[in-house]
## 1
Amino acid sequence: MKRDDLVKMTINILEKAGFSTSDPSFLIHSGFDIVARRGGLILVIKAISSRESVKATSLNGMVALARAVEGVPLMIGIGKTSGSIEDGVVYSRYGISLMSVNSLHDLFIEEVPPLVYSAPGGFYVKLDTEGMGKLRQQGISLGELAETAGVSRRTIQMYEEGMGAKLTAAIRLENTFGIDLIVPIDPLTIQMKNDNLELCEGVDGDEMVTNIFEQLNDMGYLVEPTNRCPFDALTSDRENLLFTGVGRIDRNIKRRAMAMANISKLLERHAVFFVENRGMKTNLEGTPLISNMELEKIYDKKKILELISERG
């Protein structure tokens, strides 16, 4: 399956499940492919093909966006370099959940969550701690449970405390004692191992970008630079979030402006492009424009919001 087909299949599943989705054609060369929203649930999704190698730096933008809008970064795939992605299993890449497109279908269309997650050492599951307690109440000793599962007594105690269990151990316990112990997991909330994924820091050295960000900072905004995003930064205060682009009006920023307008509308946030000279243009593909000269004359950040509202 080609990556474009995977993106289309993912969008089809999400829309059937009641999500509104962004237009992926605007997000070419971004670190994510889809932004989806259903009520208060926001997903920032990257699709990966079987031969695609994913670098940590390429995910900075999707993580920053997900964090800024209180959403969930998620990866959807059909394979990986070390083998196929199993249906019903949640994997992790840099602390981000990764699952197959069939698992996504099961989760949102069939409402059947996965049971297994992958971690160093193999496949693991969450055990019903109450069920484990019932076994003990029936007089089954730690030693019997440990021998059945093929683990130590201390490991059984950790299972009772909520630690994930090896899939093979959990199956042995279920089969031997005739009790359902494996409980579903939520790939949108499961805490995966974070492989030191860092967000983008600083700017690319462009003098115009640096000056714009400094002015916004001086007004009281927090400016978080991004990479592999249609926008150059996430600009925020306690009340507002601005998808912020900086550049000169040319062919290259048209697609970026379209993507920013598309995402900001979906997420009900503001988008703005600061440009060297906007001429007579008030917006570009739906994204409001503010010139460098205009920004230099603004001292109250409320004025920026007024211009965005006027020109959106």
## 2
Amino acid sequence: MSTIAWIGLGHMGLPMTAHLIAAGHTVRGVDLNPDAAAAAAAHGVTVVGSIAQALVDADACVTSLPMPAHVRAVYDGPDGIWAHARPGTLLLDTSTVDVDTSRWCHDRSDAAGFAFVDAPISGGTAGAEAHTLTFMLGGRAEDLGRVKALVEPMAGTVIACGEATAGIAAKLVNNMMLFIGVMAVAEGSQLAEQLGLDQQVFWKVVSASSGSSWPQRTWYPVPGVVATSAADRNFDATFSVDLARKDCALALQAGEGVGVHLPAAALALSQLDLLVQEGLGHKDCTLVTRFATPDGTLRGYHPSQ
């Protein structure tokens, strides 16, 4: 079994490391948030105070971080991963970052003698807890094989997407499609509501018909229809507005870089921006459903709570 350094023990990192430990691996983790660190320790992670300590004799290092700037910070500098990992250590980043940041990680890792794979994930916290995540891998073929063996305890599906940055490119496009799909479900659910349809019956109709989609099946934004919907928890975040806004903006940035027009993604971003401006970045991204209602109120959402 392997010793794995894990940087970032938040909502995704916590259940993912728990699965690695259950599979017999040793995980040394680092997180600046003391609550996240304590929760990870309770699940068997050996929590340490620095990246250098986490990397002692580590076979692999995994980063699971919110923003591209965080990824750059933990890799670079005298206290970073490159300064303390053993030559040949397998490095993989499961964060959602921009393509340029991923390319930078690949190039700098190669120059320093490390194997780096971009390994973003899809499936959210529910997938992390159920070890059914989809891993999208980008890098050299020989490195992708090593990663597949490592992530198996956390994954439902592992897909080798191609060379360096192919994994993160696939993730950005996937998430862009997700947020556009969320808008479709938001508008459809509220039109069904105003037309007097039984929401549970309508959900069954769509699930068996051409309007079916992952956000419809999993995040339907009406209380009492699907257990995994944030609507049953006052839209507390499964996938926060802040993170959705970041991912959607990165997809638009990628589109601009290659000349692809993305009007639906731009509309999705504008709605997420409105929620951020209202101070609701911590809530679930499906709260964009508010913008489809006749008066801005939304069943299942209580602003005062």
